[in-house]
Amino acid sequence: MDLTDVPLTMLDGEPAFLGDHADKALLVVNVASKCGLTPQYEGLERLHETYAPRGFSVLGFPCNQFGEQEPGTEEEIQTFCSMTYGVTFPMFSKIDVNGEDRHPLYEELTRVPDAEGKAGDVVWNFEKFLISPDGEVQRFRPLVTPEDPELVEAVEAALPS
User: Domain with 12 in it: what CATH number?
Assistant: First the structure.
């Protein structure tokens, strides 16, 4: 399946596609509001603000599969993200990233190995997948922060020319 054709739903219920962000470098992240890694929202927003003018966007996908750390409704998630971290990047409806109800987007993304060559299930909240405009995917595990030089360099290299 072409990633750009995967049907998505925005946090406000509006239908969307990854293809709506064609010609951009995208950082797809499964997020949660009640996780020890939740402060990564701040760095993700900074990345988004810094590189959006150059053709980049963070895309947030709330997920409640890890310790039930995203229990809220779509409205509660939206309020938390905007009020607590000033999130302006696109947020999507809550999805499953693992298991039999895994969202089709993550069905594709989890096939991509990380830097150590390991593919498969998402291990925790805030796992990151960088998708270049030409569809190349790089995977970064949850403890790779938005400020990590490895991630920042990859984002800069993936920006459209």
Answer: 3.40.30.10
